Amino acid sequence: MANSDIISLIKRKVKSEIMNDPIIVKAFGSPDYDSTDDGWSGEDVGDNYLFTWNQNPETIQTEITFVTLQVHTDAYREKWIKPTLEIWIYSHNRHMKLNPTDFPGIDENRNDHLSKLLDLKFNGRTSLGTDDDKTKLNLIGELKLTSNREGVFNANFVYRRMLFETRDINNSLCYDSR
């Protein structure tokens, strides 16, 4: 497997796990979300509010929250690479407050709450995906949260940026350089 294969694998596994977590799906606060609608699913979030590229908030005109996933790899010593999962949580300023009826007892803004849920879901993991559907991705290193920062993107959007790092074998050493 090429070192770059892990990029799409991690993105696919993380996106799937987010879409299949009803607590995280609810925290997105999609205007389309209706917990009483059995037909509404995490796939709706995955198609409209969860991107595997760094979606530009300048192109968004609605008051929503969306998440972007990026994966980077860097050389780490000779035998290892360091895959980094970068998660950006973008929220419109007027979408930061959590509805106390939907989130009783939670005294956080939307970005902080989503960040906490994602931290609980991914930090310390040694695998992504499940054995049930034969898609489990076993990580060689533990997925560790190394940075969690917030900021202002523009006049309408604020963000929280999370970095998770792990390690993998540098497969470049396995290839014949002929």
Would you give an account of this structure?
With about 180 residues, the chain is α+β, with helices and mostly antiparallel strands. The protein has a single domain (about 5-175), classed as 2-Layer Sandwich (STM4215-like), CATH 3.30.2000. The protein contains four helices and eight strands. The chain has helices at about 5-20, 20-25, 40-50, 110-120; strands spanning about 50, 65-75, 80-90, 125-130, 135-140, 145-150, 155-165, 170. The strands form two sheets. Strands 1, 2, 3, 6, 7 and 8 form a six-stranded mixed beta sheet that branches. Strands 4-5 form a two-stranded antiparallel sheet. Helix 1 (about 5-20) crosses helix 3 (about 40-50). The longest helix is centred in the N-terminal third of the chain and has 15 residues, at about 5-20. About 25% of the residues are buried.
**Secondary-structure element order, N to C:** HHHEEEHEEEEE
CATH names the topology as STM4215-like
- Judged by helices, strands and strand pairing, the structural class is alpha+beta
**Total beta-strand segments:** 8
Specify the CATH architecture: 2-Layer Sandwich
Overall outline: globular
Number of helix segments?
Answer: 4
Strand content: 25-35%
For the record, give the distance between the C-alpha atoms at the N and C termini, rounded to a whole number: 17 Å
- Rg from Cα: 17 Å
The number of distinct structural domains comes to: 1
